[in-house]
């Protein structure tokens, strides 16, 4: 049986595991079940994209718009003020999720309202992405292509902006047919001007509800009860809650920021924690292992 020792990347200095034996057991069970029983559920911003590059923060889907010329300077300042107000709350390990929840909804709602006021044109989004400094993590090509080659569904669950997210992976040449995106999508009028956001707001702490609302998607994947979950926040842990009859789940967490304060909480929640690791080297090694290194 191929074990954990067959994945040398799990000895990388960025890797922390609270219970390596448990990781080994899950991997063995998943290998035994076969890759045709596997699905991957991942967050996008700061999970599939880089947190920083050469010491400089990389943009999220929202930041791509915030930093672009499609919105006014005044709007940029207001969005920046929201970020400075609410981001410290989002990553504050002393506050409970219940306490953060209404504040996160308030942040996202205010930000979306500001964007709608800007009357953003749909045809300018591609340029905003191509001119931005967004970067998928190193190893993204192998990650997306390998999943596609093995017909393993990839569900990207994002509290960002779906239109921007799709454009990022499209421009990177990896928006393959096995990729599904659940996110906040813009609603444009007939002349291509943003008038609202569609449907219910997806934010960092209600991905579980989003998962459960999309039971149709999970229904199709009933034959895939093994899940590789990837995220960078504790809110991402509920993304697989819509999976029925789950057999195994292996959770990989990227701890990008505020490492010392949050390390224990991540180790308690994720099976594998990657500390300040800007690559997909470990997820790729796990995927190769699960598909028999083919």
Automatic annotation (TrEMBL):
KW Metal-binding (keyword) present: yes
A GO CC annotation given for this chain: cytoplasm
A Pfam family cross-referenced in the UniProt record is UMPH-1
Q: GO molecular function: any one? A: 5'-nucleotidase activity
Enzyme Commission designation: 3.1.3.5
Which reaction is catalysed here? a ribonucleoside 5'-phosphate + H2O = a ribonucleoside + phosphate; N(7)-methyl-GMP + H2O = N(7)-methylguanosine + phosphate; CMP + H2O = cytidine + phosphate
**The organism's place on the tree of life at top rank:** Eukaryota
Keyword Plastid found: no
Biological process, per Gene Ontology: nucleotide metabolic process
InterPro entries with a match to the protein in the record: HAD-like_sf (IPR036412), HAD_sf (IPR023214), Pyrimidine_nucleotidase_eu (IPR006434)
Top-level EC class as recorded in UniProt = hydrolase
Alphabetic keyword roster: Cytoplasm, Hydrolase, Magnesium, Metal-binding, Nucleotide metabolism, Nucleotide-binding
Where is it mostly found?
cytoplasm
List the subcellular locations. Cytoplasm
The protein's role, per its UniProt record:
Specifically hydrolyzes 7-methylguanosine monophosphate (m(7)GMP) to 7-methylguanosine and inorganic phosphate. The specific activity for m(7)GMP may protect cells against undesired salvage of m(7)GMP and its incorporation into nucleic acids. Also has weak activity for CMP. UMP and purine nucleotides are poor substrates.
Q: PANTHER family, per this entry? A: 5'-NUCLEOTIDASE (PTHR13045), 7-METHYLGUANOSINE PHOSPHATE-SPECIFIC 5'-NUCLEOTIDASE (PTHR13045:SF15)
- Which NCBIfam families does this one have? HAD-SF-IE
Similarity annotation: Belongs to the pyrimidine 5'-nucleotidase family.
Q: How does it assemble?
A: Monomer.
What is this protein called in UniProt?
5'-nucleotidase
Upper classification of the source organism reads: Eukaryota, Metazoa, Chordata, Craniata, Vertebrata
């Amino acid at each position: 049986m191929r074990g954990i020792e067959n994945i040398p990347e799990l000895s990388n200095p960025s890797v922390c595991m609270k219970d390596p034996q448990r990781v080994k057991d899950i991997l063995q069970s998943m290998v035994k079940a076969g890759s045709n029983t596997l699905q991957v559920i991942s967050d996008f911003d700061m999970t599939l994209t880089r947190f920083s590059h050469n010491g400089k923060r990389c943009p999220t889907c929202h930041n791509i718009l915030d930093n672009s010329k499609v919105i006014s300077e005044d709007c940029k300042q207001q969005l920046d003020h929201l970020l400075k107000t609410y981001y410290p709350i989002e990553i504050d390990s002393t506050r409970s999720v219940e306490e953060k929840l209404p504040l996160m909804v308030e942040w996202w709602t205010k930000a979306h309202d500001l964007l709608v006021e800007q009357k953003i044109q749909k045809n300018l989004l591609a340029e905003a992405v191509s001119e931005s400094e967004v970067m998928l993590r190193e190893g993204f090509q192998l990650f997306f292509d390998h999943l596609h080659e093995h017909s393993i569904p990839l569900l990207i669950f994002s509290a960002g902006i779906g239109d921007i997210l799709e454009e990022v992976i499209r421009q990177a040449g990896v928006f393959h047919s096995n990729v599904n995106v659940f996110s906040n999508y813009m609603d444009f009028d007939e002349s291509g001007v943003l008038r609202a956001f569609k449907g219910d707001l997806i934010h960092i702490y209600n991905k579980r509800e989003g998962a459960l609302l999309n039971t149709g998607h999970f229904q199709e994947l009933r034959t895939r009860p093994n899940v590789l979950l990837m995220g960078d926040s504790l809110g991402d842990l509920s993304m697989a809650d819509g999976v029925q009859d789950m057999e195994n789940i292996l959770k990989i967490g990227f701890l990008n920021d505020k490492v010392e304060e949050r390390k224990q909480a991540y180790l308690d929640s994720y099976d594998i924690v990657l500390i300040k690791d800007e690559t997909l080297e470990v997820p790729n090694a796990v995927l190769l292992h699960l598909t028999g290194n083919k």
